[in-house]
Amino acid sequence: TQPTITLNNGTVIPQIGLGVFRTPDGDTTVNAVRSALEAGYRHIDTARIYGNEASVGEGIRESGVPREDVFVTTKLWNDDIRAHRAKDAFNESLDRLGVDYVDLYLIHWPADGWQQAWDDLQEIAQSGRAKAIGVSNFHQHHLNELLANSDVVPAADQIESSPQFTNQELVDFVHGHGIAVEAWSPLGGTGGNLLGTPLLAEIGAKYGKSAAQVVIRWHLQRGIVVLPKSTHAERIRQNFDVFDFTLTDADMAAINTLSTGHRNGADPDNFGF
Ligand code: A2P
């Protein structure tokens, strides 16, 4: 059985989800989603801006796994935040996915207007069409502002985190507020070559695991929801084959030393899109 985390509203989220950023719409996404569900994943993380919601929905249906057994996340894009059209954008995402609810709906970035979007998401949640709502790419100061003005605490904050950029201070802050942390670019993304780091191979060799499996395990043991992306079925399977070994405290500490302090992706205070 795969590990799960119970969100602050009682919703249960599987701790590994397939990420589909930069996964092309059409067969590539359909096949990635199918491969993941066949491998045992029960969690898919997409977004309006990824352009592949329809294929995510198709992959779920083709897999034969009942919709209610799959945790589906999508996200409200910045243009829709700025245009104050969260509710319409949400309905459009449901239509593309071909579902009548999502498990988690996130504000993708703290774009101007996110405060009103948060109010709109609360109404969406009350309607039952999003089981949980949360944010993404929120720094401490964004969360402080939100919490000072809202009775509803976000269920999750999806942020960049990997051994290259652990983002540990923010992780601790978010966890300290009872908010789940989800890691994007958990394997270091496409920039750099985190998975080529000798230390990760050395640690993996002790357990018969790859660098990617070591990194996913490191996230799991930090209590983080991890969203590895791959378009290759073999890697998708491999990234889910991480429940039969445990990193030692020394392994965890060694991996933490890889952090450069440099982001792989955009800074939530200066993202320009
Ligand atoms: P690909 O989709 O070609 O497999 P992140 O999840 O941090 O964004 O990083 C994913 C990157 O790592 C992608 O470029 C993906 O490429 C690659 N990747 C995913 N899983 C593995 C794996 N098990 N081994 C090697 N590379 C992987």
TrEMBL record:
<dbReference type="GO" id="GO:0016616">
    <property type="term" value="F:oxidoreductase activity, acting on the CH-OH group of donors, NAD or NADP as acceptor"/>
</dbReference>
<feature type="site" description="Lowers pKa of active site Tyr">
    <location>
        <position position="75"/>
    </location>
</feature>
<dbReference type="InterPro" id="IPR020471">
    <property type="entry name" value="AKR"/>
</dbReference>
<keyword id="KW-0560">Oxidoreductase</keyword>
<feature type="domain" description="NADP-dependent oxidoreductase">
    <location>
        <begin position="16"/>
        <end position="258"/>
    </location>
</feature>
<feature type="binding site">
    <location>
        <position position="108"/>
    </location>
    <ligand>
        <name>substrate</name>
    </ligand>
</feature>
<protein>
    <submittedName>
        <fullName>Aldo/keto reductase</fullName>
    </submittedName>
</protein>
<keyword id="KW-0521">NADP</keyword>
<comment type="similarity">
    <text>Belongs to the aldo/keto reductase family.</text>
</comment>
<dbReference type="Pfam" id="PF00248">
    <property type="entry name" value="Aldo_ket_red"/>
</dbReference>
<dbReference type="InterPro" id="IPR023210">
    <property type="entry name" value="NADP_OxRdtase_dom"/>
</dbReference>
<dbReference type="InterPro" id="IPR036812">
    <property type="entry name" value="NAD(P)_OxRdtase_dom_sf"/>
</dbReference>
<feature type="active site" description="Proton donor">
    <location>
        <position position="50"/>
    </location>
</feature>
<dbReference type="InterPro" id="IPR018170">
    <property type="entry name" value="Aldo/ket_reductase_CS"/>
</dbReference>
